[in-house]
Amino acid sequence: MMATFGCNLRPDFFLESQYIPLNHGSFGAYPRALRPLLHYFQEKAETHPDRWLRREMFPVLQENREAVANMIHCDPEELAFIMNASYGMNTVLRSIPMKEGDKILCFSTAYNAVDRLLAYIQDSRKAKLVQLELIYPLSDQQILDMTREAIEREGPESFKLGVFDAISSVPGVRFPFEKMCKLLKEYNILSLVDGAHAIGQIPLDLHAVDPDFFTTNCHKWLFAPRGTALLYVPKRNQRLIHPAIINVSYKDHRDLEDQRSSYQDEFSWPGTIDFSSYMCVKQALKYRDSLGGEDKIQTYCNDLARKGGQIAANILGTDVLENDEKNLTLHMVNVRLPLQNTTLTDSQITNHFYDKLMYEHNTMASPYKHNNKWYARLSAQVYLGEEDFEHAAKALLSVCSDLNKQ
Ligand SMILES: Cc1ncc(COP(=O)(O)O)c(C=O)c1O
């Protein structure tokens, strides 16, 4: 029998029964069904470390890479398991050869750590960041137009790379990454896509989109245990990339005659770690199949985010951050908060929300400020129903009333 989505599915996960979790977007959660397998692989590493870590785990990792490559339409040889999207973004940005003055196109909505990583690349490589400010709501076309205009203005040949999200963190909105890859290709500019939120939230066809580099977290929307992500590098670019942790397989590929790739060897051993979570990806896909498959899961979450967002906006007396095409909302919905003037700093406000939501209301939805307005990002998931959005919205309203008095 097919599972029914909603709070009755919550016991499939380890989440506390009284906790109303509307923040899947931050750290993900994995189903109980994966735990025995995770422990099984950990035990294999303990009972005979040499056999396991030198030989026997590699075919298991390969099977998992094949399963996920099949899902996102690429070759397993183009995928490397890595611990998280932060590692993927660091790997690419620290690897790509840059010379002084090379420009990097980026956006004001980059994830906070990626924003600092870009600042580091600017400082250490003397690259120049061309950052475009995005003030939502925006249509895909507006984003593409302002990008084209910036490239033309700055001179296409001065750009080395464009860095952008598939789905941004705050605001939690879809970004037209497919069209952006195409646009950059027109100008011969490399594309690095931060797809931290992508796999499991949207269908992916990497060969069709053809980014130059793409990273995605399996521990967010795919239900793999934490510390599981992917880096996709098509064969043509593998010679440009070395992992952020260099291992014994490092090879210099600057000689253009040498077309051999050491990508898989360089990424397969990031020093001694627990590889077990990577081996649970196939099982995560099986669990998703048992719920009815990607379409069913993704449609449920998209619908719930839209309905739940409207419920929350009605309770808060505000609105949902959407454009005219209504294509910003996927599994995360952004609802404006009725915060008036308060004397508190942004960080005090954020921490006040965290403390009150987590410890008094036993719920969580990420508060953030965009264009001088406060919003909450509420994540839909298969283990949630509309009543959970109602609970979170009432909690947010209560915290706002509290803050409006300060
Ligand atoms: C857009 C984006 N990029 C990167 C990250 C970093 O992910 P991780 O902490 O798994 O490395 C996040 C995390 O939420 C994110 O939202």
UniProtKB/TrEMBL annotation:
<dbReference type="InterPro" id="IPR000192">
    <property type="entry name" value="Aminotrans_V_dom"/>
</dbReference>
<dbReference type="InterPro" id="IPR015424">
    <property type="entry name" value="PyrdxlP-dep_Trfase"/>
</dbReference>
<keyword id="KW-0663">Pyridoxal phosphate</keyword>
<dbReference type="Pfam" id="PF00266">
    <property type="entry name" value="Aminotran_5"/>
</dbReference>
<protein>
    <submittedName>
        <fullName>Pyridoxal phosphate-dependent transferase</fullName>
    </submittedName>
</protein>
<feature type="domain" description="Aminotransferase class V">
    <location>
        <begin position="58"/>
        <end position="337"/>
    </location>
</feature>
<dbReference type="InterPro" id="IPR015422">
    <property type="entry name" value="PyrdxlP-dep_Trfase_small"/>
</dbReference>
<dbReference type="InterPro" id="IPR015421">
    <property type="entry name" value="PyrdxlP-dep_Trfase_major"/>
</dbReference>
<dbReference type="GO" id="GO:0016740">
    <property type="term" value="F:transferase activity"/>
</dbReference>
<keyword id="KW-0808">Transferase</keyword>
